[in-house]
Amino acid sequence: MNTELLLKQLFPKQLDYQINGYVIKGNAETEAGPVRILGTVNAAPINQEIAIELAGEILQLIQQQNKTPVVFIVDTQGQDLSRADELLCLNRTFAHLASCVDLLRRSGHANLAIIFGQAVSGGFLSYGLMANEVYALSDSQVKVMDLNAMARVTKIPVEKLKDLSQSSAIFAPGVENFYKMGAINAIWPDLESDWISQALLNQQQQLESYITDQRRVVGQQRQGRQLCNSVIEKVANA
């Protein structure tokens, strides 16, 4: 996937960015004003270093108190599967990164995530899925884990999981299923230069409405999470 071409299509007015390893940082001008670009590219395996760098960039932006909108670029194969990162508690570092994105949201920054290539597991959950809105290109690969890995973890035969994935979005990888579950706001078949501006302008008019996450409600409306809300209500009222 040509990151440079995609970025030029999304930000045709003014664009300045740098890619260092797997991390992308930059600035762009849109109809909604200046935006900050931050994220990962080239199917990044997100490790301690990358997660802490992203978190630090987010905290610096909040400290500037300019409420600059943020566009998160998501292209990750998930967490780095190294013993060193596990021993250093990568799960806690991911939680810190997710908390920083949540603080960004609550500090009044309009923000959205765009899935360029892959969006897998904890790498996606820690920052991309935490954004106010998530958009994906139609050829994106989105999943928590593939069905073979899920079978090993759950001890459910992979054939059974394949059958379940035909009728239940929560068992099935793929951008369409994440859309049904409400995790993705829209799937973009191609790129229009004004889509980001429209999304950010819309957010800026109703930022407070994004503080409460409504994706489980949307997932039920799209028939991707049919039991979620009823289970939550029973637990809350128990």
From TrEMBL:
SUPFAM superfamilies with a match to the protein in the record: ClpP/crotonase (SSF52096)
Transmembrane segments annotated in the record for this chain: none
Domain of life: Bacteria
GO BP term, example: carbohydrate metabolic process
One of the Pfam families matching this protein, by short name: MdcE
InterPro entries: ClpP/crotonase-like_dom_sf, Malonate_gamma
Protein name: Malonate decarboxylase gamma subunit
The organism's taxonomic lineage, starting at the top: Bacteria, Pseudomonadati, Pseudomonadota, Gammaproteobacteria, Moraxellales
